[in-house]
Write a structure and sequence with these properties.
This protein is of the alpha/beta class. The protein contains 12 helices and 9 strands. The protein has helices spanning about 5-15, 35-45, 80-85, 100-115, 135-145, 170-185, 215-220, 235-240, 265-270, 275-285, 290-315, 320, and strands at about 20-25, 60-65, 95, 120, 145, 160-165, 190-195, 225-230, 250.
Length: about 325
């Protein structure tokens, strides 16, 4: 658990001309914040020296992350390394949030082949639902973000609502929330967007991966409500997207709540769960009128049932544990 020792050994290994990666607990990678900063500064200077060859990228894989706290607790909750990496030079910093195994494989393949970068990948070490086959995953990761047609029903028209997500756990909750909304309001046009490359949200003026403003507007619309479920601190998404046209952006993420508890309860405590996402979306859909009340009350009831169930059984309700996307 000596993160500083592991990090400096990897840096030295990279300087020999080889490549590697450092896997660490998400919360405790913060131990090497300053070392990462120094490496970023070193990379900046070496890029100005024509005689120095590029070395392989400094790759971090962050697991044991904030949303899986069945054995750990408040001390193991800190997604702030992403905030730290964002501050580095745009020609150096990269952040990837693959939503499943195939996208993780694609992201890792890209990172391990890259040179002169600092790459941070966040991925669970627990079994997760699989959304994309390998071909789809490669295309999705190459684009960095995109519409998930299987979960959307806007059929190429302007949606009433955009449900966006970045990260494994947020993706599950976004899809579950979308399913609830579609079942209760079949005529509501919903577009689901998954983000793998977080820097796509940044303005193209500020980062080379930043999505073109016109294309960003095509995807996220210019004014429709966006409910964005994010792996880390909500303000980071606002920081990246503040120059975009659409200001109707509502981000859910980690808000410093939690303890040793079930996976779903961590999301509930931080209002990242499917029921809170649905209730938030309903606020920005006035066209549904009073019909929203019934679903809003149903969500509140489910949150009460959830609390009662985990207190009695110490695990999540079957409707949560066994949930799958099924048309």
């Amino acid at each position: 658990l000596s993160e500083h020792t592991c990090e400096v050994m990897l840096e030295g290994y990279l300087l020999t001309g080889r490549h590697g990666f450092f896997n660490s607990y998400e919360a405790f990678i913060r131990v090497v914040d300053s070392m990462t900063s120094q490496h970023a500064k070193w990379l900046k200077v070496t890029k100005e020296l024509p005689w120095r060859r590029e070395i392989a990228s400094l790759n971090f894989i962050l697991s044991s992350y904030v949303w899986q706290q069945d054995h750990n607790g408040f001390t193991h909750q800190d997604p702030g390394f992403l905030n730290h990496i964002v501050t580095k030079k745009p020609d150096t910093a990269r952040i990837y949030l693959p939503p499943d195994t195939n996208t993780l494989i694609s992201c890792f393949d890209h990172c391990i082949r890259s040179k002169g970068l600092i790459n941070a990948i966040v991925a669970s070490k627990h079994p997760r639902l699989q959304w994309l086959n390998m071909d789809e995953a490669i295309k999705h990761c190459t684009k960095g973000l995109g519409i998930w047609e299987f979960a959307s029903n806007d059929e190429g028209k302007e949606p009433d609502l955009v449900m966006a997500c970045a990260g494994e756990s947020p993706t599950i909750e976004t899809l579950a929330a979308t399913k609830i909304l579609r079942e209760n309001f079949p005529k509501l046009k919903i577009r689901v967007i998954n983000v793998v490359d977080l820097m796509k949200l940044e303005s193209p003026e500020n980062h080379p991966h930043g999505l073109d403003n016109e294309e960003f507007d095509y995807l996220f619309t210019k004014k429709k409500p966006i409910i964005f479920a994010f792996h880390g601190y909500p303000h980071l998404v606002h920081q990246l997207a503040y120059k975009r046209t659409n200001k109707n952006l509502h981000v859910h993420g980690y808000i410093e709540e939690g303890t040793i508890t079930t996976t779903f309860d961590m999301k509930v405590q931080n209002k990242l769960d499917r029921f809170n996402l649905v209730m938030d979306a309903l606020k920005y859909l006035p066209q549904l009128g009073d019909a929203r009340a019934t679903l809003n009350e149903w969500c509140k009831d489910k949150l009460i049932e959830h609390k009662e169930y985990i207190q009695e059984y110490g695990e999540d309700m079957p409707m949560i544990k066994n949930w799958k996307w099924e048309e």
